[in-house]
């Protein structure tokens, strides 16, 4: 999971009057520093959330989804890379409070320190379960942090997981050959045995 504005196509510099876009491949970096190819499966710009499939993450225990929405004042945690500050074996774990949902926009407010580089990071409850995805911070006060609502986050995840059927680990449904352009190894034809001459001794 990450923020949709991170997953969107990037505009490239081009001659005047020409617009070029490039859909980038991504790499997910684990706490140990291992890099894995990631591909965008779905994004929703209306709530700024994105679902990616990361190839090769078979030994890492997934984060569970929170079973209930947070209450105002609940303590929350954030694991991310604010200002790009991250090294293998070292990651920022920040603490804050849930402050409620906006009545006019699909977003939640958290009193949590964040800055550029925090986008797309997880907001977890006190049990370490996912509540929402951080997507922006107020430029005048970096403790006013905005994220997806719990309800929108759960709806998006469940809808997309059902669509892609990843909960069944059905890799054929995900069509990994198309997503990652994996080339099957060519099967070598068995070498034909040399024919014996007709007059050769038996």
Protein described:
The radius of gyration is 24 Å and the shape is elongated. The chain has one domain: Trypsin-like serine proteases (Thrombin, subunit H, Beta Barrel). The protein has helices at residues 4-7, 150-164, 171-174, 176-179, and strands spanning 10-12, 20-22, 26-29, 35-44, 49-54, 75-80, 92-101, 108-111, 122-124, 130-138, 141-147. The chain is an alpha+beta fold and 202 residues long. The strands form 3 sheets. A 6-stranded antiparallel β-barrel has the order 6-7-8-11-10-9.
Please provide the ordered H/E string of secondary-structure elements: HEEEEEEEEEEEHHH
Helix content: 10-25%
Q: Strand share of the residues? A: 25-35%
Task: Report the CATH architecture.
Answer: Beta Barrel
Total of helices: 4
Biggest sheet layout: 6 strands, antiparallel, barrel
Oligomer: single chain
Q: Structurally, how many domains make up the residues? A: 1
**Separation of termini?**
70 Å
- Categorize the overall geometry: elongated
Class by helix and strand content?
alpha+beta
How many extended strands?
Answer: 11
The CATH homologous superfamily is called Trypsin-like serine proteases
